[in-house]
Each structure stands twice: as structure tokens, then as C-alpha cells.
Amino acid sequence: MPDSQPAIQLDHVSRHYTMGESAIRAVDDVSLSIQTGDFLALLGSSGSGKSTLLNLMAGLDRPTSGAIHANGKNLSELSSLDLAHYRRDTVGMIFQSFNLLPRMTLEENVELPLRLADVERSERAARVREALEHVRLEKRIGHRPSELSGGEQQRAAIARALVNRPKILFADEPTGNLDSATGEAILTLLREIQDNLGMTIVMVTHERPLAERFASRLACMADGKLVSTNGATGNPEKGTRP
Amino acid sequence: MKFSDMTELAVRNLREAVLRNSLTTLGVAVGVASLVAMLSLGVGLQQLATNRLNRSGLFDSVFVSSRMNFRGPGRRPSPTDSEKEPRALDEDARTEIARLPNVIEVYPQIRFFTEIRFDGKPFATMVAGMPESSKASGAFDGMQGRFFSSASADEAILQSEFAKELSPQPSSLIGKELDLRYAERQSIPSITGANSGQSAPSGFSIVPKEKHLQIIGVVDTEPAAGFGGYGNGRLLIPLKVAESLRAAQVSDLRDILSNSSSKPTYASLTVRTKSPDYVEAVEDAIKKMGFGAFSLLDASKSLRIFFSVFDLLLGIFGSLALAVATLGIINTLVMAILERRREIGVLKALGAADSDVKQLFFVEAGVMGLFGGVLGVVFGWLIGRALTFGTNIYLQRRDLPHVQVTAVPWWLVIGAIGFAVLVSLIAGLYPASRAARLNPVDALRYE
Fold it and tell me: Is the pLDDT higher at B65 or at A218?
């Protein structure tokens, strides 16, 4: 399904930190084009810069140099407020540790992005239910995160990421805290979403076998550099459920 | 984010750390309570003083005298001295003054020394006429018996010292009767000379009379209403009754000597206005009519200035506790930022702008201020009640009437709550901007 218009275009993107006297090149001159509808897996060992690159694409951080074009805008030139709006309206995000707010029920957690987006109260309940139906958690709507299993929590986080109907979904080690069966189930769900909603997904992982099974493209990073990318071919099981 | 959503989230956050936030709110409440208690004491004392003084008739009265009185030997009033030629303070003048706007009562001071007979024995005393308005002066609040049933009732109220002379048990006098013996002044018509056509100066004769009065009350404190006061009166009768007696007074002698007309004049008149606000205008109008006029308005102004400064000082002392409470708010919110660092990161990742995070902390500070303010007003009001209660126990022991030493007017309630919210918002400025500045990547990494 990928079309010619890239969902995200990175041009010579670098992100450097200074730690004491030394400069750390977390992301070093990365150029990458991600097409709309791609399911890209960013692979690499710990400290390779894959999460930093994800944060840059998700608008959580700004590059030291280079340009990131997403949704027709150069993120590095956006104001802090516009960047917040980009995160709110264009992007959905899921994390390794789920990051659900523990004192809120699932319904309230999923409703949170709608509150931030000033969606009318009357519309919210239906949107929350729709998102929870996508992840098959509608029956747990009144539960708190602590009452759910890890897999259910990650599904709730996916529902929260989907509720504002974003164009791109960023997933930072979404299976890192889950056992392998649950992790597979989560990735299957992400694939379903990609297929059904035509969404672009960028996932950071260090589990190469899983990435190869579920992603449509792989990109490997080492020492902040992009060392290899393959096309839409590395996805032998695309369209089938494991 | 919508304000309603923001408030909902803020209240929810506050409920999470309920003990800490309750203690902080309680700190604000104590601060506001001290402020409210201090100011309610200031306001209460001011009201007490002003009401007493206003009711005493000192500040809503203009004291009128004929400027002719002040004319000393060898001194003639020059035209520059006055707006108008001095006039006699007679019945016409009284009627004219009574017609001035915002004047409720014009009355002369009638006092005369005389003798009464009670139980067959004579007693010498000073009789004073009481205007109707003296009932509201507060002087009769703690009296035994009652005030005059009407302005022209043949009734008498005894001053307690005098009552003790009549009977060792003053309260037993109520309902009994006494005879007032007095000298009535009767005018002698002027004699017109048949030949010259000139009228000879008139005069008056003094005729002894008696008036039967019923004792209806005994008053403890001496009423000191009006300039010159009728405080020295020991037998009080309604002013209209006193006027109808036409008892000879000291000023009558002066009439004979200085007045060419046969009309009796008043030594002075007291003019009561609707409120102290009208005193100045009435005083000016009376001066323009050609009389001497005098009021205690300046004293009332000084009193207001004194209480404004007094309230200011009380407010400053009261605010100190609130200042300490604001440090509590800052501390609580800074702690909350540390605890909720990750949550702030999540909010930002989900699209919350810096301003959303800032406003969230701001609203939390405001909500603590609002609750603290409301609670503080209640506490402050209770402290005020306790102060009044304690004061009244003390006054009761000293046989003094009850007073209300504190007052919590609406402006103080709304002002105190508003001030608490404002101060809390100011206290929230630093934590809110600190929370807003958090880098989302760092915040999300925080464990």
C-alpha cells in the first residue's frame, strides 16, 4: 500500500549531546525516507541511537542538525506549541513500559488525548469505545491499569495512541516488557491496525526475528548511524497472522 | 485543554496525594483564618465605635446656635464675618431648619432645675427633655422598664443614681407616680402706650405649676446624646412634654435683656440628619441662613482614618501566616513535579503543550487556594465568634452590656477567598513554569 509521498523524510539528521567534556553523537547524519503505510522496524543494539531517532521523528526531541519532514512540515523548524500539536494530532505513541496513568481507568486513560485535543465531551465516549474495540478491550473499560495483564496494558496504550486517529504510530520497544507470546500478539495487533487503518508504523526493537516477521521494512542502526535498510521485501509473513 | 477538563484533572491530581494536599490547603486555611479574624476584629471594632457614636447623635447632628449669642461687648459683626446677618433662633427658624433636605428632627435642649415630690417628700433635680431619636442612641439599651410610650406621654425615666435617692430599690419605682413642680413662664403682652404709639418691652411672669408623671423606667448610664448633652438630666421626660410645660429656663433671662421681640428664642437647637453623610450640606445651609452651626464631622473623619490604618496593620499581621502558607504551596507543588515527572512526560508525549502543563499546575494551586480560602473564612469567622464570646463573658463579669467585637462582612468573605486564590496562583507560578519546561524525553525516562 505504500504510496509515493513519504510519511517521514529525514535529511542528514544528527542529535548530539554533551556529557561533561565529551560530545555524544546519539544520532549521526541519518537520512531515511518512510513511505505512508510502511511498517518500519528500527533495529539496533542498546545505545545505537534508535530510540533517540524515534523521539526525533515523534516530535519529542529536536535534532541538532538536519531536517525531519513529516506531514508536510519540517519538525526542526516548528515552535514548541506546533510540535505539541503535531504530537497530538498526527502522531500516536506507545512505550515499552506502557505509561498508562495508574490512577485512571482505561476509559479515562484513552480519553486523555481527546481532552488535550479539545474534543467535545459528547463525542468522546464513542471515540474511546471505538479505540478500545480496535484492541478488543471494551469489556475492561472501567478497570485500572494495575488490574490488567501486561499485554492488556499495552493494548490499552495502543488504544490511547489510536484514539486521536493519528497518521503515524511510533512504538518504542512495545514488546520489551512482555513474554514472547504476548509480544507476538501485540505485533499482530499492530499489523492489523496497519492493514485496516492504512497507518504508518515505526517501531524500535532489538528483537530481530520478530521485526523480520512483522515489519515491512527494516532499518539497522549502530553508533548513531544508519547501517542498513532493506525495502518492503523483508516481510515474508505480511498479510498472515502468526 | 478546556478549563473544565483542566479543573477535573487538577482536582483528581490533588485527590491522589490527599494527605499532603489537605495539609497544604489547611496551611492556606490557617493563613486566611488569621487574616479574616484580624480584619473582622478591625471591622467589628470600627462598626462598634461608629455605630455607638452615630447612635449617640454626635456625628449625624448639627448644633445650631444664634450667632447673636457670640456677640461680645464692643464687637459688632462685620459683613465679612458672615454670609448673612445674624438671626434670632426662634420657632420660625426651627421650622425653617426642619424643612431642609435630609433633616429628620430639630429639637431644642430643654433642661431646667426643679423640684419633684415623691411619696410626700421633696427632691431637687435636673429635668431634661428627651427627643424621640434618643431611643436609638443606645443609651437606653440596658434600661429597666421601658422607653416612653409616645412623644407626648406623661411619663418619666429616672437616672439610676437619682432613683436610688428615691428608693433603695430602684426597680420598685417603676409604675409609681411623682409630681413635678416647676415654674411656668407666661408671657406678658406688650403694653402699647396710647399717646406715643410705641410698644414697651415685653416680659414674662413665672407661675408655679405641677405635673403628674408616671415612672416607667430606670436607666443606668447617663445618656450623653447631643452636643451639651442631656446627660446631666436626672429626670427624663419626653421632649414634647418638656416643651409644653414652658418651664422657665436660664436662657429666658437673656431673652428679656437682648430680645426686642416678644417671641421666645432657643439657646441652641440640635439638628439630626439622616446620616453623617448629610451633615456637611446641612451645616452649610444653616450657616447660610444666618446661624452659627457646628458639627463633629471632622472627628468622625479622623476616626475613619484611624480605623483604616488599624485595619491595614491588622491585615499585614494577618497576611504573615498566609505568606508562610504560600511557601507550603510552592513546596507541595515542587514535590508533585518530582513525583509526577513521568506523568508530565506522558502528557507531553500525548500532545500536551507547555501551556497545558503550566495551567494544570496553576489550577491545582488555585484549587488549593480556593478550598483553603473558603475553609479559612469559616475558621476566621469562628475565631471572631470566639473573640466576641470571650469579650462578652468579660464584659458580663464587669456588668457591662454585650457587644459584637468582630464582623465578617461580604466584602471580607469574597476578598479573603479571592486573595487566597491570587496568592496561591502566585505561589504556583514557579512550580508551574518548572513543570512546563520539563523535557518530555527526560521526563519519560524518569523512574
Answer: A218
Residue pair B235/B148 in contact (Cβ under 8 Å)? The answer is: no
Domain that holds residue B290: 60-110+266-295
Q: Which three cell numbers stand for residue B373?
A: 480560602
Nearest to B424 by CA among B339, B354, B380, B361: B361
H-only helix segments in B398-409: none
Domain membership of residue B9 (yes or no) is: yes
- Chain A residues touching residue B351 (CB < 8 angstroms): 84-85, 87-89, 91, 113, 116-117, 164
Report CB contact under 8 Å: A93, B353: no
Amino acid at B438: L
Yes or no, beta carbons of B5 and A60 under 8 Å apart: no
Only one residue has cell 420660625, namely B92
pTM above 0.95, yes or no: no
- Residues B101 and B174 occupy one common structural domain: no
> In whole angstroms, what is the distance from residue B408 CA to residue B31 CA?
16
At B237-273, the pLDDT tens digits run 888 888 787 776 666 666 666 555 556 677 778 888 8
pLDDT of residue B259: 52
User: pLDDT tens, A23-38?
Assistant: 888 999 999 999 998 9
Query: Which residues in chain B land under pLDDT 50?
Result: 70-82, 193-197, 199, 225-230
Phi, psi of B341 (to 5 degrees): -55, -50
Cell 519546561 found at: B437
Asked if A88 and B346 come within 8 Å (Cβ–Cβ), the reply is no
In a domain, B254, yes or no: no
Residue B117's CB is within 10 A of a number of other CB atoms, namely: 13
φ/ψ of A102, rounded to 5, equals -65, -30
Comparing C-alpha atoms, which of A194, A177, A240, A192 is closest to residue A213?
A240
- B226 and B316 part of one domain: no
| B286 shares a domain with B174 | no
In a domain, B258, yes or no: no
Q: Look-up: residue for cell 498526527?
A: A90
Whose grid coordinates read 469567622? B381
In angstroms, the separation between the Cα of residue A197 and the nearest Cα of chain B is: 20
Chain B residue closest to A166 (CA)? Answer: B350
Q: What is the DSSP letter of A92?
A: E
Q: Which has the closest alpha carbon to B286: B299, B267, B300, B273?
A: B273
Residue numbers in B near A58 (CB within 8 A) = 349
Could you identify the residue written with the cell 473499560?
A141
User: Do residues B32 and B134 share a domain?
Assistant: no
Mean pLDDT of all residues in chain A? 88
**Whether the Cβ atoms of residue B122 and residue B116 lie closer than 8 Å to each other:** yes
* Alpha helices, H only, chain A: 50-57, 80-89, 106-116, 121-134, 150-162, 180-197, 208-214
Domain shared by B105 and B121, yes or no? no
Question: Does residue B373 sit within a domain?
Answer: yes
Over residues A220-232, the pLDDT tens digits come to 999 999 888 876 4
In terms of Cβ atoms closer than 10 Å to its own Cβ (0-12, 13-18, 19+), residue A180 is: exposed
The Cα B27–Cα B331 span in angstroms is 12
